[in-house]
Amino acid sequence: MDETLRALLRDPRIWQGEIVAAPAGLPTGCGDLDAALPGGGWPRTGLTEILLERHGMGELELLMPALARLSREQRMIAWVAPPFIPYAPALALAGVDLERLLIVHATDLHDRLWSAEQALRSGSCSAVLLWAEPADSWLRRLQLAAETGAAWGVLFRTSRARNRSSHAALRLRVQSGRLELLKCRGGRPRVLSTSWRSQ
Question: Mind listing the domains of the chain with CATH numbers?
Fold first, then answer.
């Protein structure tokens, strides 16, 4: 380091922000993804957006290690408007405690969003999974609700939303054979050529 810079950094009038470590995350089961995420895994609070070309690309398999861990806590995991009926034997095989699951069947978009917001804000859910295409104003509401209730919100959207702004702390696009971090609070966007399936 240049001596001039060293002298400047020693000056007591210069404030140097401390690097604060991200809180420990929930392991994803994918080493490359854990290494890319601050805290070494999924965030425990806040909104995560997962953008998909179509449902059934392994997006739930990507979440299973975290959901299994969260289901062993005392709070519920809410699934709001899943596109398919969750298959209980596969969830149990992945280690998810089925008694901690709450499935909310809502067909109207406003009802889906309202249900997810209330579940996130309540403090009784460790995670809320939501399948919807909300307006931008709802993203802020969901992010604030997740922070208020200390919950992890996961919003599944189509990849058409990729170029839209978002209040989510983490945005991830799932494609066949790779993951793309579009936005990562405390980290850097990047493409991960990795497979998370059956790890």
Answer: 22-192 (3.40.50.300)
